[in-house]
Design goal:
Helices cover 6% and strands 55% of the residues. By secondary structure, it is mainly beta. Strands 1-2-3-4-5-6-7-8 form an 8-stranded antiparallel beta barrel. The longest helix is centred in the N-terminal third of the chain and has 21 residues, at 2-22. The radius of gyration is 28 Å and the shape is elongated.
Amino acid sequence: MKKRVICLLCLASLFVWLFLACGKPIDVPQNTHDLRDSYWKAVEFRAEGTGMDEFWADLFLWADGSGYFRFSQATQESGFWGFRDMLDCGWALDGEALALSKPESPSAVVYTGTYEQDRLEISYDGFFDEGMIIVMERGEMPPYGAQWELPELYGTWRMAPEAGHESEITIRHQAFGADYWRLDGNFVAMEHGLRVERKEGAGWEGCENQAWHVALGGNSDPAQRFYAAITGDKLLLRIERDADYDEDFTLEYERADVILQHNPRAWEGTWNRVGAETDTAEITIVNAAEDAFDFLFQGLHINPYGAAHIGELEETAYFTAENKAVLEYEDEYSGETITFGFVMHGDKLLVSASENVQGLFGANVYIDGVYKKI
């Protein structure tokens, strides 16, 4: 009887083992038990002739076979940080060979690498750096959430309009920069291609994100400084000014889920500036194509004594986004580059020029402002 009980227990154990072994398999690639739910951070770069003095990269490998790869660098030429690649991916390990693939097509391998003793070597073939090797070591998995790292910043953020105040900021990982505009009544402030530099710690006193922030540099007015940080589901933009300006202030933005449509034909026509009667201006846009449009600006200022001053500019502006265009104008007299920005916002055309535009037009003639189509 005792032997029969032992045999029955053995058979029961065998059936349990067979059930577990033959049941529904876990949806994880083969030989991945060492890498599931692991986090890797770059510790070494191997490349020739890149001119790179700083780099940053990491890799998430989750247990369900999905992953996330991020790569950023600051070059000697540009001097600022920018993400060059952010990739949702699938992953699989075959022996020591690691493959990162597109999630929708596991056979389409994007990057390859090798795994050995808690070290990964990823072969990165970027646009600028062919045959680069990124060496990674296992690290502690950072908390996932709105403050975990930079990618949460990227995209377009919009301030809720209130009492005539509107603003939008777009932070782009591909173009390594940020664009910003703010509308206060008929006053337009605008910046293009701000450099994005990641920094540790809080960006300003009272900032809720104590872990990290970014400085947005290269703005047209050196008397102002821009910082941004994520807190919860909001982006905070801090604008600090020198003593002879107004007080520092912080703007709060929410992510804009609106998908903008690129409609060049909507730009065409004659636009009149709204506002002061003594400072009239008109912009006529023609030949709007997928990448650019031609425009003619004509401005007029009448001083208190009735004297008129005029200004005119006929040039081509190039689209940088669905609703934005920029002209980099080389002033032959001053030798400086003057930046003109155009933003289509609803039925308004917002226009702004960099600080060094002074002297290009007649006395007190300016192009900045809010325009509406006739």
